Amino acid sequence: MTFTDHPIETPPRAPSPVHRFGTLAVHAGAPHDPSTGAVIEPISLSTTFAQTSVGKPVGIYEYSRSSNPNRDNFETAVAAIENAKYALAFASGSATTAIILQSLAAGSHVISVSDVYGGTHRYFTQVAKAHGVKVTFTPEIEVDIRDHITSETKLIWIETPSNPTLRLVDIRAVASQAHEHGIKVVVDNTFLSPYVQNPLDHGADIVVHSVTKYINGHSDVVMGVAAFNSDEMKQRLGFLQNAIGAVPSAFDSWLAHRGLKTLHLRAREATVNATAVAHALEASPHVISVNYPGIDSHPHRAIAIKQHRNGMGGGMLSFRIKGGHAAAERFCQSTSLFTLAESLGGIESLIEVPSSMTHSGIPKEDREAVGVFDDLVRVSCGIEDAEDLKADVLQALEKAVVLPKITNGLNGVNGQATL
How many CB atoms lie within 10 A of CB 53? Predict the structure, then answer.
């Protein structure tokens, strides 16, 4: 039988929750301690758990690589806010990617959007092929997905929005085509968080996050998570989680769970701030273009309205600055509230130049083919005051673009002023 004889149905989503997002974020996976009544779970740092007799532990825990109370509670919370049946946490977002790719048999084929996170691109191009998995990249995955499907295609990988160009993908359109051929769909939802978008509701089979970003939200934890509804997937990925052992610590799980409880508040404020900054950048004569799905000029705004909560754009944006790479660097060194640093999704605002930082490992021609030019600046808006962030961006633009022209004019030729 050929691969076209094996269509799959989207696994049924978890039952609709009784409570809304904010209530789930605060209460899911957060039982009161039965012995003390503590409303915040204690941190269980023990690596091993006593057994009453051989093979009979006191409770449900034996060894913390296999399972831990704090990790279990965090996974329960993530599953609740992603409308999933299951969630599994890993030591990083990259470890999550690796585990999912490791679940594929040698000889498998994956189709991925072209403009993915640099670490994902690195794994796909330099590691996956080492265990016999081939990855094909395509810039317009809804349009030409059928052209790339082969009898060995097992997985389609989507980032929406993509990193760092903020392109959107219609998840339902891709999932409908993929499932006709028995192919599963993974969506990296890191840029939006479960508050803004729930990919499983749109037909995806797995949703992944770098918990380091919005879910934890405080720039003090490195972690990843995958959520899904399939019982078979729970067995397979759960086996690999334990066998490979790339699991988060109890303390990191506790911290991430604490951060998750305020996700809805932080995501809303970050969206307000990013929207204000995007409009300010779009109106500036020093900016070539702005990539932000929360404004009408975004080419995929209709997808945002369909897929995102209340059409929100999230806290991430990018823009091309006039003056090339040098101007992009000057801009990043001229802000006072935005910190020049990699990562995103924290309470503090960050900026970076992808071509020289997060995506520097991708060949220049490949970067530019998907819009990652040397003059592109990526912005992660935190939860500061929007007016302060706008003012910081505008003054940095003046210093990066206008001031060098004035300085060059005053210096003139051979130090002589030319006015």
Answer: 6
Reported as a single tens digit per residue, the pLDDT across 85-137 is 999 999 999 999 999 999 999 999 999 998 888 889 999 999 998 889 999 99
Assess whether the previous peptide bond of 7 is cis (omega < 30° from 0): no
Q: Are 93 and 193 in the same domain?
A: yes
Residues 323 and 216 placed together within one structural domain of the fold: no
pLDDT in tens, 371-408: 889 999 999 999 999 999 999 999 999 999 988 878 76
- Alpha-carbon distance of 363 to 345, in angstroms, equals 26
Task: Encode pLDDT of 305-331 as tens digits.
Answer: 999 999 999 999 999 999 999 999 999
Q: What's the order of all strands across the beta sheet hosting 376-380?
A: 287-291, 316-321, 376-380, 350-352, 339-340
Q: Which two tokens stand for residue 175?
A: 């999932």
Count CB atoms within 10 A of the CB of residue 122.
17
C-alpha separations of 305 from 202, 236, 308, 309 in Å: 13, 35, 6, 8
> Listing from the earlier edge strand, what are the strands of the sheet with 86-90?
86-90, 224-228, 206-210, 184-188, 153-159, 109-113, 134-138
Is residue 14, in this structure, part of any structural domain at all?
no
3-state SS, residue 181: coil
Tell whether omega for the bond before 161 is within 30 degrees of 0, i.e. cis.
yes
Q: Which residues pair with 87 in a beta bridge?
A: 227
Of 238, 259, 280, the one marking the end of a domain is 259
Residue 136 inside a domain? The answer is yes
Tell me the residue type at 327: A
Asked if residue 5 belongs to a domain, the reply is no
Residue numbers of the domain that contains 49 = 21-259
Strand locations in 123-257 (E): 134-138, 153-159, 184-188, 206-210, 224-228
pTM of the model: 0.92
Residues 272, 389, single domain; the answer is: yes
Distance from C-alpha of 315 to C-alpha of 267, rounded to nearest angstrom? 7
Terminal CA-CA length for the chain: 78
The backbone torsions φ and ψ at residue 190, rounded to the nearest 5 degrees and listed phi first, read -60, -45
Domain end, chosen from 259, 278, 297, is at 259
Residues assigned a catalytic role:
65, 117, 188, 213
